Structure formats: structure tokens, C-alpha cells
Amino acid sequence: MSVPADARAAAGADARISPAEVTLLASVFLIAACGLVYELAAGALASYLLGDSVLQFSTVIGAYLFAMGIGSWLSRFVERQLVAQFLGIELLVGLVGGLMPAGLFVAHNLLPSGADTAFRTLLYGLVLLVGALVGLEIPLVMRILKRQFSQRYALKDLVSQVLTFDYLGALAVALAFPLLLVPHLGLIRTGLVFGLMNAGVAVWALWLFRGELRRVRLLALACAGVIGLLLLALAGSERLTAWAEDRFYGDRILHASSSDYQRIVVTGGRAGIRLFLNGNLQFHARDEYRYHEALVHPAMAAHGAPRRVLVLGGGDGLAVREVLKYPSVEQVTLVELDPQMTRLFSTEPRLVELNAAALRSPKVTVVHADAFTWLESQRDAGAVWDVVVIDFPDPSNFSLGKLYSTSFYQIVDQHLAADGFMVVQTTSPLVARRSFWTVAATLETVGLTTMPYHALVPSFGEWGFIVAGRRPWRAPTVLPAGLRFLTPEGMATLRHFPPDMARTEEAPNRLSDQRLVRLFEQEWGAPH
């Protein structure tokens, strides 16, 4: 059947997308991108400052989505001057959302120590406000599109177009946030850049609909004011970040960077160098030797003559430094998730001096991988180690808790020589007594014989460790020369647990329930 020429011409005209339509659909993409950035930035900042990334991200995202629902519901009451209302919302969400990471960082440093409740109130108040504003955006864009192009779109087509661009914007930011934005811009500058994008959408709408808007000059001044404030904040973001981190850490910042996995800060003061990961102290140079000697030597010396050693975690190279004190060692494999850690501790002169250039030793092979996944991949290779040193951060979230589970220890056991030992850093048996003994129960469930012990590390307090293996541990009579803390005679003291650290009966930590993470949070969050 032939189609009349005028009908074909009309269809061709309808198929062409107008500049206004392109503008509005592009704004949907940017709106979605900006909204997700504010959500992710709030979750990341909360995890840095409050700990437990799983809990913080879950609650922030939940509160944000709830607020978006409120915003969508409130949009029904916006009936007049849709474009002006949309423009105002864009400026407000750009200003509040863009400044939110900087504001939260500053507030956390100005609030008195222990004022977590006040900080959480501010955090969730801002999350709810930004979420509600973002929830208003998409319904208003849909109504503007419907009004402008009612002849072109049926409702189903309009919803399809808008949601497609909305989800594409979210996908783009979900990929860019951890891979590009945070590593290269940091949280504060990322928020400000995307705040400027929101303001840019407002300017775009002002220009596009200038013919139908009232008070164009006033709206233009508002756009200029918001953009000016955000640019001013962006220009001072480096100094703001340095000021906030100096106040937070209390020492001069020697190095600060954000990797794909964590915020790495190295400070230096009169007492020496300190390393912080996501705001948590990992070591202090004045007493780290106590921790690392206690971690490494009870297992290494008890083995007798270890040749092959596996170190899981410990990208600072300090545990490797202690391992290399044994002449019998031929090969050390260090598995560290974050390549930025090992790069820093093998190139920065002050840090290289601290770990005695351990990461540069020809005996050391560095692997950048998730320890759980990497060990599973070694099953077919039949790799076996005489000693395995496990130096992971505490089980403060589920991604770390899996590394303290029966499933993980079973995999480690498969790669342990018959006469070998593994040793695990196991949090404080004084502060987190039940957590400590949960790890012991977990190792014993796998079928290993355990030897729990503890040492006083002034920067941390009483700290716990557990040696485990298929044969009983016997106290070594000889240790490497030059140790500053550990002695053969002092080993017996480390094994004594007074009543306030004595064993409690605990269930093992399994991958399916990760009870250790909840227990750890309860104990470290309780007043002591």
C-alpha cells in the first residue's frame, strides 16, 4: 500500500528530534548522574568517618531512596511555572549536593570528639534533603516534556525515553565514581564538579525557555551566584581538604591519596610516622615493631627453617621485613589488594627506610589481588607454604569478615605445609574479647590446633594474635638477632590471659552468617 507524500513528509518531520527535546533528555542524563554522585559520596564519606562501609552505604542509600520517593510525591503539588520551579530545584540541589561532601568533612572536624550522634543527624538530614530534591527533578522533567511535545509522545513513550536516559546516567556514574572520580578528584572536588553540572542544567533551562520565564534577570543572578559559590569552593578545595585532614589526624600530612579501595594517609610528627587507612590507624612508627615482631616471629621461629612464606595483607612491607630476618627464607609472596599501598611503601624514602626496603628484596614477589579469590585460583597449582602470615584489617565489614571465616581458613589450610603454621592478627582480646575468641573457634572448627597470645602495643593497647597449624606449637628457644621487643623468655608472658581477657565460648564465623562482623561492631562501639 502506498503512503501519500505529505504523510511521509509529516512522519519525517516527527522523526526529527528538536534541539529542545535533545536538551531536556540530556538534562535527564546529567540529573541522574549528579544525583547518584551525591548518594555515593555521602555513603563513601560516612564509611571513611564512621567505619563499617556496608552499614553506612546501606543506610545512606536507603535514606536517599526514601527521600526520592518523598520528592516524587511532593511533585504533584507543583502546578505553576514548571520550568522556573525546575530551574530553582536544579540550583538548590547543585548547591546543597555539591557542597555536601565538603560540609560533612568540615563538620566532622569541628564537632567535639565523640559527637557521632550530631554528625549522623547532619549526615542523614542532608541526605534526606538532597534525595527529596532529586526526587522532584524527574517528575518535573516528564511534565515539561509532555507539555512541550504532547503531539509527539504518548505517555508510555515519554516514560520510556526519560527512564532510559535516567538509568544510562546512573550507569555512567556508577562506573566512573570508583574508577575515575574518587581516585583523581577526591570526594570533595567530585561533589563540587557535579554541583556545577546541576547548575549548568539550570543555565541551560534558563536559556532554552527564556521566552516564557518571568524574572529572567533574577533567575540569571541566582545561577551566577550558585556557580560562583561552587567555583570558589572548588578553588579552595585543596586547602580545605588539607585543613580537614590536618585537624583529623593531628599531624602533618606527608601523603594523602584515594585509591580504588581506600583513603591512604601517612602523617609525620615528633613521635614518628603513622599510617591511616580510611581514617583508621594501621601503625605508628614508635611502636610498630612490637606489633610486627609479635605477629611474625612466634610462627616463623617455631617452624624452625621456613623456606617459602606467604604474607596476606600487610602492603606496608613491615611484616615482610620481619620475615626476611630468617636466612632460611628463599621466597616470600605478598598478596595485597591495593597496588597503591605497595607502590607507596616501595618508593617513598621514609617508608622504604621504615620497612628496610623489604618490598625491593629479590626474594619478594608482590601479587595485587583479593586474597580469597587468589588463593582459590592457586588450588590447581598446588602451591604450599611453610608459614602463612595473615595481616588483614579488623573484620569491621562483610568484605573483610569473609577473610576471617571457616571458608577462608579452609583454603589457607590447603596451602599450608604439613608441618607449617599460619598466624592471624586477631583484634584486641581486651576491647573485643568475644571477637578474639570467635576467631580462635573458627580456626579450630577447620581442624587446626591454635595457640592464642597477646602483646601490648601502646598505639593500640592489648592486641591479639593466634598461631594455628596441624601440629602443636612449641615455644622457640632462639629468635633472630636484633629484635627490640620479643625474647624467648618473654613468650610465656604473651600466652597468659588474665580474667578480663580469658576465653569465652563462641560459635565460629561462617561465610553464610558472618556473625563476627556484627560482634566486632558491638564490642568496638560499646563504651570501654
UniProtKB/TrEMBL annotation:
PROSITE patterns attached to this UniProt entry: PABS_1 (PS01330), PABS_2 (PS51006)
Protein's cellular compartments: Cell membrane
Membrane topology: Multi-pass membrane protein
Pathway connected to this protein: Amine and polyamine biosynthesis; spermidine biosynthesis; spermidine from putrescine: step 1/1
Domain of life per record: Bacteria
Alphabetical UniProt keywords: Cell membrane, Membrane, Polyamine biosynthesis, Spermidine biosynthesis, Transferase, Transmembrane, Transmembrane helix
Transmembrane regions: 24-48, 54-74, 86-110, 122-141, 162-181, 187-209, 216-235
Residues that, per the record, bind spermidine: 292, 316
Entry keyword annotation includes Cytoplasm: no
Top enzyme class: transferase
Catalytic activity, reaction form: S-adenosyl 3-(methylsulfanyl)propylamine + putrescine = S-methyl-5'-thioadenosine + spermidine + H(+)
Catalytic machinery residues: 391 (proton acceptor)
Domain PABS, chain residue ranges per copy: 228-470
Gene Ontology MF annotations: spermidine synthase activity
Positions of S-methyl-5'-thioadenosine binding: 262, 336, 370-371
The enzyme's E.C. designation: 2.5.1.16
Subunit note: Homodimer or homotetramer.
Family the entry assigns: Belongs to the spermidine/spermine synthase family.
Protein name: Polyamine aminopropyltransferase
Organism: Sphaerotilus sulfidivorans
